[in-house]
Structure formats: C-alpha cells, structure tokens
Amino acid sequence: MRPTSLAARHALAWLLATTCLAAPAFAQAPAAAETAQALRRFDIPSQPLPAALAAFGLQSGLQVSYPSALDAGATAPGVSGVMTPEEGLRRLLSGSGLTWRFAGPGTVTLVPLPRPAADGAMALPQVDVQAAASRGYSPVVGMVAPLSATASKTDTPLSEIPQSISVVPRAQLEQQNVQSISEALRYVPGVAIESYGVDPKGFDWILLRGFNAQGTSDYRDGLRQANNSYSFFRSEPYALERIEILRGPASVLYGQADAGGIVNRVSKRPSATPAREVLIQAGNNNRLQAAVDATGPLDQDGHFLYRLVGVVRRSDTGFAYGNGQEVGDDRIYIAPSLTWAPDSSTSVTLFADYLRDESGGTINLITRGARPSRNLVGDPNFDLFSQKQFNIGYQFEHRFNSTLTLRQNLRYAEVDVLLNNLQLLALGADGRTYSRYARRFDEHLSQFSVDTQLQADFTTGPVAHTLLGGVDYYRTAGRVRRSIGTAPSLDRLNPVYGVSIAYPTLPQVDYNSWYDQLGLYLQDQARIDRWIFTLGGRFDSYSSDTHNELARTRTSQDDTTFTGRAGISYAAPWGVTPYVSYSESFVPNSGISSPATGSRPFEPSFGRQWEAGVKYQPDGMDALLTAAVFDIVKSNVLTTDLRSAGFSVAEGEVRSRGLELEGRASLVRGLDLLASYTYTDAEVTRSNSGTAGKEPTLVPRHMASAWAHYRVPGGVLESLSLGAGIRYIGATWGDQANTLRVAAHTLLDLALGYEIGRARLQLTATNLTDERVISTCGAQDACYLAAGRTVIAGVRYRF
Question: Which has the closest alpha carbon to 161: 179, 148, 174?
Fold first, then answer.
C-alpha cells in the first residue's frame, strides 16, 4: 500500500495542476500599432482575395474580419518578403477598395474606403475569419516555420528564441517519405540517429549534442512520453504535423530532460479547411502500406471540427533467417480527434490514438572481429516483439481578453510490451558453436500527464511582456517481468533455424515502480524596442518508489531541484538576430550509494550550457539561416565507486562543445533547400572507470547534410518534382575505452514525384547506393548494421 503522505501529495499535485491560476491585475495589452510593426515573413501568391486574406491571417498571426459582401472574384496581388503586417496588408489590399483598422492587438477589421454620400453606399456587415491565426503548432507553408511553441510554450518566432531549434515541417516529411522519427531527423544539425542500426522494436535512438535523448527527451504535443525497460511510446510520423528539436538544456519548462535537449512531436489537429487524402505505398522488403487522413468541419458554423488519421502496414525489415523467413515490421494505427470551438476565444480538442506493432524482435547478428555476418542470433519460432498502446486526452485553450490566456493539456496513456529474444552465452572450443539462452519480457507502463499554463501579454512603459506561469504533473507506473531459460546452441557457420524453443519460466526480474514529478515554472519574454530578454525559472519536486517482488525489497527516492534559463537577443532591422543564452537541465539518477556512504539516493545529474549564435532571415526570401556555438557540462554522472566494489558514485562529468550551422529555404518557383553542418567535441572529463579524457560512444565529431527539392513550375514537365540529398556521418567510438573505431560513411537519398490531377505519384530511395554501414560495435562480437537501400513507390490522392 502506498504511504498516506505520498497519496496526499498526489492529490495536491492534481489539484494544483488542474486549477486555474489566480490572475493578478496586469497593465494594458500592447497597442495595436505595436502589433502591426512586428516583423513577419510573407509568401502569399496572387489569388482570389478571400483566399489571400486567409493566407495573410495564417502568416501574420492576426485574426481578420471583412465584409460579408466581399467580391470573391477579386484577385489580390502577391505579397512576398519580410515586413510588418501593416505593410503586408497594405500591399494585399491595393486596388481592392478596402482599407483596415485594428480592433485589438490581434484583430484586423476590413472596411470599405469612404465614398461620397451621394452614391448611397452602406456599411457592410462583418464576418470573422476565425481559423486564420498562425500558431506554434500550425501547418507550415514550405520548409521554414515562422513560429514555434516548443522552446517557450508561447507562439514565438524562431528568430526570437535564444536557443537552437529546428522544425521539420510536414512538407519535408512528405518530400523525403519519412517512415520513422529517426528518419525525420536525418537532415537536422546536432542530431545523431540510428545508433544501433535497424531496430524493429521502434526505439528512436537519438543523441542531441552528444547526449542520449532516447529516454528523457521524448515529448508529444509538449508532454513527456515516459519509458521503462523496453516500454517506450512509439510515434507514427504520418500522424504528425511537424517535429521540433530544441537543442541544449530545456528543464526550465519541461522538468527532467538530458542536457542535449528535447524532441517534440506535434500531432495533426482538426482543421476548418476540408481536406482528405488516401495514400497507398509499396516497396522492397515486401512493404505494403495504406494510410488515410481526413479533416474538416462537422457543422455549417464550423464550431465542430474533426480529424481521422489511420495507417496499416505489412512489411519486413530487410533481415532474414537462414531458412528464408523474414523479420517482420507490421503496424496498425488509428487516431481520431475532435475540436469544439464555441467562439473565437475558446477551443477544446479531444484526441485518442491506438497503435499495435508486431515484429520479429531484436536484429542481433552473429559478429566476429567487429565484422557482422548476415546470420541472426535468434530464431523465427521464438523471437518476437509485440506492442499495444493507446493515448487519450484533451487540449484546452480560453482567451479571457487580449491580455490573459489559459491553456491546459492532459493525456493518459498505456503501453503493453511482450518481447522474446535469444542471447549468446559463449563460443565453444570448436570456434564455431555458440551456446544460447532465452529471455522473455512482459511489461506494462501507464502515464498520466497534465500541464496548465496562464499567459499574460501586457506592457509596462516601453517594455512589452509575454509572461507565462505554469504547473505540470506527471505520474508514471510500470511493471517489468523477465524470465530466462535454456535454448539450443547455434553453429555460426551452418546455422539451423525453425527449431523448437520452450518459453522461459525462471524469473529473473520482477518489479513494480512509480514515478511522480510536480513542476512550477515562470517565464518572461520582455521586448524593449529591438532587444528581447528571456528569463525563466522552475522548481521541481519528484519521487520514485520501486518494489522488487523477487527480493521483497523497496527503494524510494525524493528530491527537489531548481533550473533556469536566461537569454538576450537583438532583432536587427536587416534580419540578423544575434543572441546569447544560459540554460540548465537535470535528470534523476536511479539507485543508492554504498552502505559505507550511508546508502543514500544519488543526486540528480545537472546540465549547464552557454550558447551564442546568430539567426538570419534574408529580406524578400522565405529562409532562415542559423549558426550557434555551445558549451555543455553535465555533472553528477554515475561512475564506479573506488571505495566500494559493485557500487557507483555521482561524481562523473561529461563535456560537449561545438558548432552547428543550418540553412532552410523555400525559394520562388518551387525550390526547397536544406543544409546543415555539425562539429561536436565531446569528452569524458571526470570518471573513476579509466575513461577520463576519452570520447563518449556513438558521438560523431563531424556531420553534414544537404537536401534539395525542385518542382518544375511550367512547360511540358510542369507536374514533375525532383529531390536529392546527401548525408555524411563521421567516425565514432563503439566502446568507452575508445578501442573500437566505427568508420564514417556517406549516404545518398533520392525522390521523384509526378502529379496527375489530384493524384501525386512518388518514388523515394534512401541509401541509394546500398552502402553496408555498421552503425556501431559495442564489442568485437556485438555490431549493428544500418538499413540498406530502401525503395518505396506510392500514390497520394487528395479530394
């Protein structure tokens, strides 16, 4: 039974997280003229005026109302470049007979130009375009996102965020035909992926700035996705609108997260614009996949919006047993959502999703001398991985007035995992026969998450503030049961597969665990003329409780911590924004110290980063160029206790410093460009294990990538599109002692597309030249292969 004090703490956490924060009196909201002078990037082609106004609202962040009798046949001129919303609107309405006035900081009303009284003109009633404002989670036009909510939990232009952030939009996911989260990050600086090659268990093996981002940096719509042992929540990329990568410590808003940053997966939401598509794909490795995405209003007034996303896949991984049986990778996914917007100030989005994955388990290859063979350690009669998960929750927002906005995001999720695999024990005296043993994992994980935010936009003298206060609460419960048993031996030179293997029955691990985290945070984004100051702080209280059912023991841990962030940016008038920032992170360390030191819970690991950089948005171009240098120190890393054998101490330290360059552009006439370069100098600076001065495993010193996609704008090839990319991943160390060097590699990707009416045909190839890439080698007999050439053809029909 859980302690009463802890139960009381849970109740208090829920009460705090779901109760509206008391709102103090604030100064007046920013003046309309101030809103009108904020620089924005516009890319609005010449089109009918109502459609142009909708695009203007999306890209400016303003809500537009206009006369109901507006001439739908009038054509607006194109507007392109970086300018104020006022200037953009002036150009858009040129020759339309309309002018405008600001009804509030975020609302523009269009009115007819004055006419002589003799002509009898009458004022026209206004209609409200409610879904026009661009948000940090909105669909991105092209490859350059204007806003993000990941770095600040407010809708902030990327150029004003004093930290490195990249946004992978839906357009890029479709151009590159992304099939996993790892694939989506292949062209992002500072990110190393696919560290352990092909993994049908679906783990997103991600490193950010040299630090592991798999376990503590996984976020979905701003809420952390927990994990435990082999239980990880998986994300279907087809269901995502964008993927955002915030690099560097991010605990000030999110609580526990490793020093490298976080990856936030932003879901598709219901839209007021009707859209439907069906996608059918086929490829090598016996791949067959079908997907559907439909959205639009359910009623005439547009108060109810729906969305339905579904995916069905049957595929293999490209790896097979000696008897010809392939290792599978199958999926079923469905995600319905519903938005209710009773007025322009309130919206509630209810969402749910269900995912079921069935695969062949672990790709574990027989390896000798750091040279992996194509023979698998497992057996198709035994090895498997089965995962079922669901999410349910809501996203609520209410704008009280032009100053105060309340938001709350809530989610409950569960995942069940069943994993069977075989492991090698030892190589026999004959040099060819391996003894093996069997393992079976049966796991369950549940998580409750809620984040409540109150945002205030106001001014104090010459300073415009965006003040954010919030409280979040996470409750995670996990169960892990692991059994082991005997298995027949395997001849590495003449392996026999399809043998009978009994399910393991000897318990090896059996524990239940609970984790709770309550966080309170406050952030101010203050703007004085062109100076932007970001200052935030957060207090976290967290606890864990683990019951070992085999040993009949219990381990508990309680702690509190404070993290912060401070940044300064200067938005120069020519589109250049230099910045400097300091940020912090923390990750709890599980376990306790030796009896000689009191058997105390470990202090958490802390990350501290200094970052300086510059962001450039060229005038007249839909582009964003960024450069950043960073220095991160992670302290209190667990290392060997030299005084007590078999125990650890939180005395280690890792440092990572480097340079990141990124360019994103959607140029005129259908050309999209991406380019990035990463230099990472990572080092273990303090260790009791003899690794001080060594480089951490899996971290390339150099990475570079480039992608270009071109859609022919006219002529006989008007419907043709071409895309090509190149990726360079530098050499890494496979072991902590830095004795196993994993070679660098360069990979090519290709995409071809052709449109026929409402249908779009596409052919993509990753690792075009079918390079045999070793992702890493943890030992001479433990290496992992990356995916070979993957070719997928598909047709997308939109209606």
Answer: 148
Pairing state between β 316-320 and 365-368? unpaired
Asked if residue 400 is part of any domain, the answer here is yes
The tokens for 709 are 């996609």
Helix (H, G, I), strand (E, B) or coil at 19: coil
3-state secondary structure at position 530: coil
* Closest residue by Cα to residue 311 from 239, 262, 258, 375: 239
Confidence of residue 599 (pLDDT cuts 50, 70, 90): confident
* Identity at 596, one-letter amino acid code: A
Check residue 552 and give its pLDDT: 94
Q: How far apart are CA 186 and CA 179, in angstroms?
A: 12
Choose one of 101, 129, 157: the last residue of a domain: 129
Q: What's the rounded mean pLDDT across residues 541-554? A: 94
Q: What is the pLDDT of residue 39?
A: 58
Q: Is the per-residue pLDDT at 19 higher than 60?
A: no
Both structure tokens of 325: 């049986």
Query: What's the rounded mean pLDDT across residues 403-411?
Result: 98
Residue 167 in tokens: 């946004």
Segment 288-300 mean pLDDT: 96
Q: Which residues neighbour 522 within 8 Å (Cβ) at sequence distance 6 or greater?
A: 467, 468, 469, 470, 536, 537, 538
Residue type at 428? G
Question: Would residue 25 count as lying in a domain?
Answer: no
Q: What is the mean pLDDT of the chain?
A: 89
How far is Cα 142 from Cα 147, in angstroms, rounded to an integer?
13
Neighbours of 626 (CB within 10 A): 22
Q: Are 210 and 216 within 8 A, CB to CB?
A: no
In 309-340, which positions are buried (b, 16+ CB within 10 angstroms) versus exposed (e)? bbbebebbbbbbbeeebbbbbbbebbbebbbb
761: pLDDT strictly greater than 90: yes
Q: pTM of the entire structure?
A: 0.85
Predicted confidence at residue 82, as pLDDT, reads: 60
Q: What CA–CA distance (Å, rounded) separates 720 from 710?
A: 8
Q: What is the CATH number of the domain that holds 77?
A: 3.55.50.30
DSSP secondary structure, 87-117, as one string: HHHHHHTTTTTEEEEEEETTEEEEEEPP--G
Overall domain count for the chain: 2
For residue 489, the one-letter residue type is S
Query: Is 731 within the bounds of a domain?
Result: yes
For residue 335, give every residue at least 6 positions away whose Cβ sits within 8 Å of its Cβ, in sequence order, or none: 236, 239, 267, 268, 307, 308, 309, 310, 351, 352, 353, 354
Interatomic CA distance for residues 178 and 198, integer angstroms: 15
pLDDT at 200: 84
Residue 349, both tokens? 């989005």
Residues spanned by the domain of 766: 275-798
The pLDDT > 70 percentage for the chain reads 90
Which residues make beta-bridge pairs with 749? 725, 766
Name beta bridge partners: 406: 398, 454
Q: Are 574 and 625 in contact (CB under 8 A)?
A: no
Distance, in Å, from the CA atom of 690 to the CA atom of 179, rounded to the nearest integer, reads 40
pLDDT confidence tier of residue 391, bands split at 50, 70 and 90:
very high
End position of a domain, from candidates 75, 102, 129: 129
Query: What is the CB neighbour count within 10 angstroms for residue 505?
Result: 10
Q: CA 305: distance to chain centroid?
A: 25
Q: Which residues contact 16 (CB under 8 A, 6 or more apart)?
A: 471, 473, 518
- Ramachandran area for residue 375 (φ above 0: left; ψ -120 to 50: alpha; else beta): beta
Backbone angles phi, psi at 696, to 5 degrees: -60, 155
The helix (run of H) or strand (run of E) holding residue 177 is: none
What are φ and ψ of residue 588, in 5° steps? -60, 140
Distance of CA 126 to the CA centre of its chain: 40
CATH of the domain at 665: 2.40.170.20
**Strand residue runs (E) in 592-692:** 605-616, 622-640, 648-667, 671-686
Mean pLDDT of 280-296: 97
Q: Is residue 190 part of a domain?
A: no
